[in-house]
Amino acid sequence: MNPKQFTGWCLLIARLTLTATFLMAALPKLQQPGLFAESIAGYRLFTPLSIAWIAITIPWLELIVGIGLLAPQTRRAAGILIASLLVVFIGLHTSAWLRGLDIACGCFGEHEANEVSYLWPILRNFTLFVAAVCVLIRDCRHHTSSQRPA
What we know:
By secondary structure, the chain is mainly α. The chain has one domain (10-144). Helix content is 75%, strand content 0%. The chain has helices at residues 3-31, 33-42, 48-68, 75-98, 119-147. Helix 1 (3-31) packs across helix 5 and helix 2 (33-42) packs across helix 3 (48-68). The longest helix has 29 residues, at 3-31.
């Protein structure tokens, strides 16, 4: 396997991992928005009205961008949104950690609701962010090179 093929496979794995992660994060939240709203409230940054809106919109956004990362027509926009969401998530976890809050992430629904650890979600989201940036760079380069006149 040549280096170009290896890179292509790595980027495909990164894209599929991002898609799977965002789908796995969205589905439990869609099924139990109240539990997700409780997790959001624990960060102590949002008003009750904004918590309700966030609990409703974020899971749908995660679902849409997760699927959108697979379609060539929406791949770059989805990648930008995923990278942006990951930066926000990293910031939220870091903020809670620095303020000494004893809250669970709520990132993947109920099974993660009792875990109170900030280092793991920050490292996970940073790794996913790096994967999203790599996919975006590749997609931007591929789009630019395919647009050049022959």
